[in-house]
Amino acid sequence: MVETGAKSALGITFADATANAKITIDHYLYEEGGQQNGALFDVAKGTLAFVAASVAKTGDMRIATPTATLGIRGTTGLVEVPEGATATSNNVAIKLYPDADGRV
Question: What average pLDDT does range 62-77 have in this prediction?
């Protein structure tokens, strides 16, 4: 279940070539000024583009793939997990892009 509160927004798009994607939101908690903010997205197959915002910068945002778990503290990125990816495969692509201040 995906649910938002008042004055919030959510965007989920599965309208491209990522047919049969499998992405699970295992955990998501954000409270303004909170100390226990966190998120865990599990990408078993498909593509996840992200812009790290308040959860990443004030808590523990993670993206799990079959080959690794990424700790996200800032930046923008893309995770591509092809069908059949395993813990020993080298075919998961992770791309990070600079923030406005130039940091990645």
Answer: 91
